[in-house]
Design brief:
Blueprint (H helix, E strand, L loop, with lengths): L29 H13 L3 H13 L4 H16 L1 H16 L4 H18 L6 H14 L4 H13 L3 H14 L4 H13 L3 H17 L6 H13 L4 H9 L3 H14 L4 H13 L3 H14 L4 H13 L3 H16 L6 H20 L3 H14 L4 H14 L3 H14 L4 H15 L16
Helix pairs in contact: 1-2, 2-3, 4-5, 5-6, 6-7, 7-8, 8-9, 9-10, 10-11, 12-13, 13-14, 14-15, 14-16, 15-16, 16-17, 17-18, 18-19, 19-20, 20-21, 20-22, 21-22
Length: 440
Amino acid sequence: MRKSLIRPLLYIIVSGALVFCCDSVLGYDKDKLFTLGIKNYNRAEYGRARHCFERAIKTGLKDERLKFATYAVAVMDNFKQYLDGVEKGESKLRMDGNDETLRAHVAKLHYAFANELMQKEFYLGMVEPQLKRAIELDPENAAIHFDLGCAYYASMRYVKALKSYEKALVILPDNLLAYKMAGDASVALGDFDKAKKFYLDLIKANEKSVLKYDESELAKVRKIVSILPETYKEIDRLREEGRTEEAEQVLKKRMSLNNSDYIAMTELGYIIQDKGDRKTALDLFKTAVKIAPDYPISHFYLGRLYFLMQKNEEAIAELLMFKEKMRLLPRMDKVTKQMYLDGLYYLSEVYFTLKRYEDARKETEEIIRLDPRQQNAYYNMGIYYYVYKHSRSDAYRSFMKAIDIDSASDVAKSSKYAIEFIRNNPDSRIAPDFSFIDRE
């Protein structure tokens, strides 16, 4: 296992491929150019991809996309002769895709190029298409599945990493390192039962293998198996029962096993902040965000703590990052969706507190779009219309919608009080003590 793959790396996930239909890109803006660059790179049309990225850079590409485009151009320059061979091979495959010898040859070219990039820090967006194409051409090659898993693991895409390792093991069950990496990915995901199974499978497979796993490393695996802590569900149960000291010890134990466990880090920060130690909690949240920038919850807790510390701009930046990362999720179950809605409620409350009323309205409208039966959101819209817009009619309609959803709830009672106040006070500039967020 290459040591470089253990470190968290920069990455941009890209997928899909469309035909680049015209030779000139002069009329496109930087966003379109960047997208076309990615699509052409995925199609192994590297000359066009390079041209698009260069044009995008010249037209003002910024931040992570600028870094990616600059890196992509440098890579395509350094490996031009290499990539020319890949491109020619793909061109031949378009004419005769059934030539098994040619398919194997082109798969080998893609795989070899990906391995070159994986020897150092890399963008997943440049490695993933090469390995996935190699797998498409040579699906029974366990080594390619394994290396794709390593690319995902290095970029902290643990779910995808685990699937790739499992596929590699189906094809080649005596791949000892794949068991180890699958166990590590399971630990990163907090699935300790599955992690223990992979580690035990490694120990069992090693007994039958001619080529033995390094004994010192195997001793570490045995130790991990013996002290694997409880699952996150168990930690949640401890917290719900008020047994926070026990939960704290479990989380510290997890971090002692894996000092990059950003989930444990975030959970521990929440407990420590609740105990009043904001400085330690802040350090934990900031470290978690650095290790796993795509993990939404760390951004939320960091933003919430910043707001409590009256660092408003930092708070909003982190809360918006939480929103952005949540929207990247391919799907949300009921619990995850409610967590997202709660985050939007909090962001809208922050905006309202800072008197950024239009921003508060937009977040509230987003909540209603996601779930039209969010009673609290209609109540909050009523407050927005009455307090900020001084529109008694719009406020009345919003409060009535809240009541219609569940007339017996506490939110409905607050809405009825608000409507009664509106009826008795014709001047909308006179506002009662409405609370913007009125959640149960």
